[in-house]
Design goal:
By secondary structure, the chain is α/β, with parallel strands linked by helices. It has helices at about 5-20, 30-45, 70-80, 130-135, 165-175, 185-200, 210-215, 220-225, 230-240, 245-255; strands at about 25-30, 55-60, 85, 90-95, 115-125, 140, 150-155, 160-165.
């Protein structure tokens, strides 16, 4: 799905980011999936699960933001210590695809040799004064609030305490995003791969999948997502995780309900 160089580079910086930030660190997105399914996936398939190109960090906001807020402290570490540059709601570095080294300011590198390594900052709610203080508005994911309640997995990676959404919560996030992908087909396919992997390679009981996911999403949103998944989407996703399409369909069947 993604080039091995891209996911390898992203994982290298994930390690640096985790080692540098203050605990607890909330990891979302593709790496949150990887950290929960890779052990079982690799045992069964004899190869690692799909990695991610970006690093997604989650933050809980208390309706206001100050210079001492966790997100502000994290941005300072990422920019000042790790030398990531701001770009709207993201931070990034440019990496040379052949030398695998960071591209220095002023270096003239052909675009096809540049891999932009992004960190996305995601909050559960956006305080009214956020942009005034930071100069940008972050990505907001309302479902993130559950991670900071009692819907999280706590693990240790690179000797740091991490907060990961419970598998069913990540699945809800992934499912909700499917209709929003638009022309980003590769992200839609990755969402389907992640959704399937969480169902197949964690301790979720497939026959309880609807009950688990419906804690976070209405049936209307679930049905809308399912209607946006085509046979071609399932075929592509199944190829990436080396499972037949029927396995994907079996999982999807557990989500279908009629809503009033």
């Amino acid at each position: 799905m993604y080039k091995e160089f891209e996911t390898r580079t992203s994982y290298r910086y994930l390690k640096e980011v985790i080692k540098s930030l203050n605990e607890p660190i909330c990891i979302l997105g593709g790496w949150a999936v990887f950290l929960q399914v890779n052990k079982k996936f690799q045992k069964e398939q004899q190869l690692p699960y799909l990695g991610s190109r970006d690093i997604d960090l989650g933050f809980h906001m208390n309706n206001k933001i100050t210079k001492n807020s966790v997100i502000m402290q994290s941005i300072a570490i990422l920019e000042e210590k790790l030398k990531f540059k701001p770009l709207s709601f993201r931070l990034y570095k440019e990496i040379h695809t052949e030398t695998e080294e960071e591209i220095r300011p002023g270096q003239l590198i052909p675009p096809h040799f540049i891999f932009p390594m992004y960190i996305d900052l995601i909050v559960d709610t956006i305080p009214s004064d956020f942009k005034k203080i930071t100069g940008f508005n972050p990505i907001d994911e309302p479902l993130l609030k559950f991670v900071f309640e009692d819907h999280k997995t706590i693990t240790t990676e690179f000797n740091k305490k991490l907060l990961l959404p419970k598998p069913e919560l990540i699945m809800a996030m992934k499912l909700k995003s499917v209709p929003e992908r638009g022309d980003k087909a590769h992200k839609k396919i990755k969402d389907l791969c992640d959704f399937f992997a969480l169902a197949w390679y964690t301790d979720i009981k497939i026959d309880e999948l609807y009950k688990n996911v419906s804690k976070y999403l209405s049936q209307k949103i679930i049905n809308r997502a399912i209607k946006n998944i085509t046979e071609q989407d399932l075929q592509q996703a199944s190829a990436h995780v080396n499972h037949p399409v029927r396995d994907f369909k079996a999982i999807m069947e557990n989500l279908k309900r009629e809503h009033s």
